[in-house]
Amino acid sequence: MMHLFRFARVLGVVGLSVTLTTAALAQSTDNTPKYANEFLNIGVGARALGMGNTQVSLAQDATAGYWNPAGLLGQKTKYDAVLMHSELFSGIVKNDYAAFSMPLDERSAIGASIIRLGVDDIADTRNLVNEYGQINYDNITYFSVADYAMLLSYARKLGPEGLTVGANGKIVYRNVGSFATAWGFGFDAGAQYQHGNLRLGLMARDITTTITAWSINSEKFRNSNDTLAIPKSSSEITLPRVVLGAAYNVKLPGQFSALVSTDLETTTDGRRNTPISTSFISIDPKLGLEVAYHSVAFLRAGVSNFQKIEGTASTKESWRAQPSLGVGFTTSGLRLDVALSRLAVEQAKTNSIIVSLGYGFH
User: 5, 37, 51, 245: which could form a disulfide with 288 (CB 3.0–4.6 Å)?
Assistant: First the structure.
């Protein structure tokens, strides 16, 4: 038990050190970037999204390449593959994900993940009215705005029993039709530790910062009929974020069990609307629960994205959170997970349905 507490303390110290170091770097910059490459923080997998995105200490299948590459060594089959599709904001935004993982030997494993978040079939009506003032619908063209990421993951067992570490190398590609494109490169690092029913996790995203360079097609803008200023090519910097996670499995009567999990996500890109928010760091807590029957059927719930809502003349200041629910079934290596997440958009709310399919085989 002392060994467990010592490791938990080391994990916390490492996470705090990374957070403070990167936050200090952000403080030394006059214009601290915020929400760069934010599409990479939405989450993947219906199991995770149904549990409030609390997966840093739990992920042990192909989705670990995204949540914490150290978990790739925990998968129960030799090969594992996951597909996910979800639609956000009444189907306007499509979020797709695919991943595959496999061991190299008894002490190491690799994985690959692809993420796409996009809005398709956007109408370009700039040339709807021709030079004679006439409307010509044939002049309408369509384009897509999409963000892509590829993650290549590696995990390895180290030192004490139950300890694994991992890292991601990631390539980011962002596209705004033929108007602009961007490329970015970055690295993540993570660790997981399991002792009995307790799991601990640490994930440092964009640990070296991720620089995304935009290239603007100026000629495309000059061909338009509007008078908007032409944007210039520039770069975005994604500062590190550190997530500490913990989970505990409880045996219930009969064939039931319960898994309780929590993640503390710490960002270093300035003040955010989170329960703990300073000009130095911001911390967003997440909570998740999974009740399993015979390790075949699962019922899940979670809460995340705590935000303070300013009051008006007739209402008081209040806190709002994003709840989520999910169910899952598994048989003969096949896993089907469905999650329902309620997103808040200003004063409106919209439900998002996430479906993912996983398959593990030898």
Answer: 51
DSSP 333: T
Query: What's the rounded Cα separation, in Å, for the pair 160 and 67?
Result: 22
Q: Which of 56, 26, 29 is closest to 41 using CA atoms?
A: 56
Q: Are 175 and 214 in contact (CB under 8 A)?
A: no
Alpha carbon 199 to chain centroid, angstroms? 20
The residue type found at 309 is I
H-helix or E-strand spanning residue 13: helix 2-27
The amino acid at residue 302 is G
The dihedral formed by the CA atoms of 357, 41, 187 and 164, expressed in degrees to the nearest 10: -60
Q: Report the phi/psi class of residue 39: left, alpha or beta, with left for phi > 0 and alpha for psi in -120 to 50.
A: alpha
Return the DSSP state at 75: -
Give the three-class secondary structure for 65: helix
Q: Nearest to residue 150, comparing CAs of 24, 225, 219, 66?
A: 66
Q: Which residues does 143 contact at the CB level (< 8 Å), separation at least 6?
A: 122, 124, 176, 177, 178, 179
Superfamily designation of domain 2-361: monomeric porin ompg (2.40.160.40)
pTM for the full predicted model: 0.85
C-alpha pair distances (Å), 133 with each of 22, 128, 130, 223: 55, 9, 5, 17
Question: Which residues on neighbouring strands pair with residue 210, listed in sequence order?
Answer: 238
Segment 113-165, tens digit of pLDDT: 999 999 999 998 877 887 777 888 888 889 999 999 999 999 999 878 889 99
Query: Beta strand 141-157 with 348-361: parallel, antiparallel or unpaired?
Result: unpaired
Specify the pLDDT at position 11: 46
Of residues 228, 248, 183, the one with CA closest to residue 4: 248
